[in-house]
């Protein structure tokens, strides 16, 4: 690599910072990647320079490195002014203007532990303002890695130093569009560029998308390639309030953190550098307030994106609850984002086969958004290592589309153990029946849920549990029956294929729990959101668990019954009582009007999709991820036209 020295452009920006430091010391530190020996003054100088250059579109160090230096410095001198204000943009010659509203930076977390601590702080604040923890909801959005801006409807501003920014309305005049329906005045957001577009058309012209964001708002004439990207709609001002999001109870955020991070991380076609979590309750927000730098009710979760190349030592099969065999690659232990990684799950066996993954293969691992690392690409292929026998029961494995599966449904220990683990975990109202305990019980021949419930208090000790654990396990079985749970959750705990929580809830809105076992596929198909294939699979799956289900059900659980959707047939409107979400830009009317109309027809309109949503109506430019996520929840996805057809006779 060639030696780094500040060029003319750098120097003219640095000049504006009016620093009193020797630049060659900074250059030396960057070249040697040694920052420990910098004096505090030089370190602050480096931070200020890196920040200014980063915001002008020419970063000199990696984001992760900047963050690390900032963190180190905040330990040394927490009160330093640079750490207690928004890291400013370098404002060009043109005049600054006051922002309509203060724009802050975000606090950052790099681990799940830190997120947990932040949630503890939310809960403490909730308690102080007497808000029930049940009502503490958290909104999760992608943290767009663009150029922060604010739109008050007339002027578009840069964030500047958080109090004063620059008027960049010229970007709009140049044709920069506002996301979704182009409505102005939606407040804070980010100027972004489509990743696909960048990869296809601009990657050979610009080093990174940051160069382009700076170009979009440039005072001088815009680069013609950037202008073309603007004209083609690849560049957008994206107000945060329009962002793809998941809004969930905090306990769900804690329990499903990885999958939520993963979903949101992949929800938009823009560069992102983390995800944003924020509490939605206004009273909690007011109570928590802000520091000079960030809102206490909001936090960014970030991970180190750097990929590493790793050699595969072996590929090991693991049989899941459903019989699907997952390939797990064992790796030469390697450091990635501060953690040592020694194994990674490969998507499925077909990937092992087609990508040539086996001992000696070299893969590139990333932790892009994932707490769990994932395989980005296979760098060196080898003879793939496929599995022939189930690692648990030694049955010969069969291919089923992309997967190898163990066909032994009745007697495969891995399948039975994972089914038991799934049951207790899904109930979620008890403690103690994790993998270790289940494995022990299974090794003593306990293969069914009802058998576990039949264990007497004094019997647990015969399975080599200590007195205290035995008592606790016995108590927990009682607790699991006594603490109220929803009937849909109870049903989904049996792990029937296609009967996840959302579908269970939907079925139970129409039929009672025990009735379900006698439904035919024809009846299920009549309920919105069930296609024929899934209806048949559900009937089949229920048949398989029927005997076990009733044995367990008859033990007497404290089930709350899903309210029935009543009177549907007596009301003419096809939307009566339905929960509808609109997304994307509509072509035949504004979204606001459609929402009003739907309400008038008896629908409830929500902003985000949950398992309770009936219809997701999609306008233009809705990502497949969003659509699939909705489908996974059992939501019916309608195009704008399909939706209008549905209303055609009203
Ligand atoms: N490489 C470098 O030299 C260098 C220098 C300075 C800063 N940086 C990077 O920039 C980051 C700090 O910059 P910052 O203070 O501009 O940003 P930040 O990371 O503190 O985040 C705050 C900003 O996030 C934006 N944002 C994006 N998506 C959002 C969403 N969904 N909801 C709410 N806000 C959202 C907002 O514009 C807000 O102003 C650092 O983490 C660092 O990685 C890098
Ligand atoms: Zn098996």
Descriptive notes:
NAD(+) binds at residues 63-67, 105-106, 159, 190, 302. This is DNA ligase. The active site is at residue 143. With 650 residues, the chain is an alpha+beta fold. The protein folds into 5 domains: 8-84, no CATH class; 96-301, D-amino Acid Aminotransferase, Chain A, domain 1 (2-Layer Sandwich), CATH 3.30.470; 308-405, OB fold (Dihydrolipoamide Acetyltransferase, E2P) (Beta Barrel), CATH 2.40.50; 413-560, no CATH class; 579-646, BRCT domain (Rossmann fold), CATH 3.40.50. 36% of the residues lie in helices and 20% in strands. It contains 24 helices and 25 strands. Strands 13, 14, 15, 16, 17, 18 and 19 form a 7-stranded antiparallel β-sheet that branches. Strands 2-12-11-3-10 form a 5-stranded mixed β-sheet. A 5-stranded mixed β-sheet has the order 5-4-8-9-7. The longest helix has 22 residues, at 532-553. The chain is globular, with a radius of gyration of 28 Å. The N and C termini lie far apart (69 Å). The model is unreliable at 567-571 (pLDDT under 50).
């Amino acid at each position: 690599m060639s030696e780094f020295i500040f060029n003319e452009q750098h120097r003219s920006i640095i000049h504006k910072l009016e620093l009193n430091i020797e630049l060659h010391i900074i250059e030396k530190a960057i070249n040697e990647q040694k920052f420990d020996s910098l004096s505090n003054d030089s370190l602050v100088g480096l931070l200020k320079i890196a920040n200014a250059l980063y915001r002008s579109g020419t970063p000199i160090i990696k984001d992760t490195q900047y963050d690390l230096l900032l963190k180190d410095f905040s330990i040394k001198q927490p009160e330093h002014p640079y750490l207690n204000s928004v890291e400013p943009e370098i404002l060009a010659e043109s005049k600054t203007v006051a922002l309509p509203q203060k724009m802050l930076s975000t606090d950052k977390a790099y681990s799940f532990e830190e997120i947990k601590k932040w949630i503890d702080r939310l809960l403490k604040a909730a308690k102080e303002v007497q808000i029930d923890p049940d009502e503490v909801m958290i909104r999760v959005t992608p943290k767009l890695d663009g150029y922060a801006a604010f739109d008050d409807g007339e002027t578009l501003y840069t964030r500047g130093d958080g109090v004063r920014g620059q008027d960049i309305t010229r970007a709009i005049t140049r044709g920069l569009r506002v996301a979704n329906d182009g409505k102005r005045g939606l407040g804070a957001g980010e100027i972004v560029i489509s990743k696909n577009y960048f990869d296809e058309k601009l990657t050979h012209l610009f080093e990174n998308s940051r160069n382009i964001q700076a170009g979009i708002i440039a005072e001088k004439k815009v680069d013609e390639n950037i202008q073309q990207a603007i004209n083609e709609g690849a560049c957008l001002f994206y107000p945060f309030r329009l962002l793809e999001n998941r809004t969930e109870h905090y306990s769900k955020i804690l329990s499903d953190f990885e999958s939520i991070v993963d979903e949101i991380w992949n929800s938009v076609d823009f560069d992102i550098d983390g995800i944003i979590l924020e509490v939605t309750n206004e009273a909690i927000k007011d109570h928590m307030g802000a520091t000079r730098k960030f809102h206490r009710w909001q936090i960014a979760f970030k991970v180190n994106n750097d990929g590493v190349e790793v050699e595969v030592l072996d590929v090991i099969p693991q049989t899941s609850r459903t019989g699907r065999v997952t390939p797990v690659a064992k790796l030469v232990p390697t450091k990635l984002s501060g953690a040592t990684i020694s194994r990674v799950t490969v998507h499925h066996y077909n990937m092992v086969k087609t990508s040539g993954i086996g001992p000696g293969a070299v893969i590139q691992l990333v932790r892009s958004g994932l707490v769990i690392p994932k395989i980005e690409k296979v760098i060196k292929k080898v003879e793939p290592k496929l599995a022939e026998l189930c690692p648990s029961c030694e049955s010969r494995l069969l291919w089923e589309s992309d997967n190898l599966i163990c066909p032994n449904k009745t007697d495969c220990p891995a399948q039975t153990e994972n089914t038991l683990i799934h049951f207790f975990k899904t109930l979620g109202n008890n403690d103690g029946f994790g993998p270790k305990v289940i494995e022990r019980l299974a090794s003593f021949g306990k293969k069914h849920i009802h058998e576990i419930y039949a264990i007497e208090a004094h019997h647990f000790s015969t399975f080599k549990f200590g007195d205290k654990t035995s008592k606790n396990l016995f108590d927990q079985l009682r607790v699991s029956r006594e603490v109220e749970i929803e009937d849909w959750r109870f049903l989904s705990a049996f792990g029937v294929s296609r009967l996840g929580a959302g579908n269970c809830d939907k079925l139970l809105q129409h039929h009672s729990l025990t009735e379900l076992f006698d439904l035919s596929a024809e009846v299920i198909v009549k309920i919105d959101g069930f296609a024929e294939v899934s209806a048949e699979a559900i009937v089949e799956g229920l048949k398989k668990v029927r005997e076990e289900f009733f044995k367990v059900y008859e033990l007497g659980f404290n089930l709350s019954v899903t309210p029935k959707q009543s009177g549907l047939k007596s009301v003419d409107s096809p939307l009566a009582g339905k929960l509808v979400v609109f997304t994307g830009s509509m072509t035949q009317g504004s979204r606001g009007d459609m929402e009003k109309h739907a309400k008038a027809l008896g629908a409830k309109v929500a902003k985000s999709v949950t398992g309770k949503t009936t219809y997701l109506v999609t306008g233009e430019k809705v990502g497949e991820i969003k659509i699939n996520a909705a489908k996974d929840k059992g939501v019916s996805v309608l195009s704008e036209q399909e939706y209008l057809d549905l209303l055609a006779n009203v």
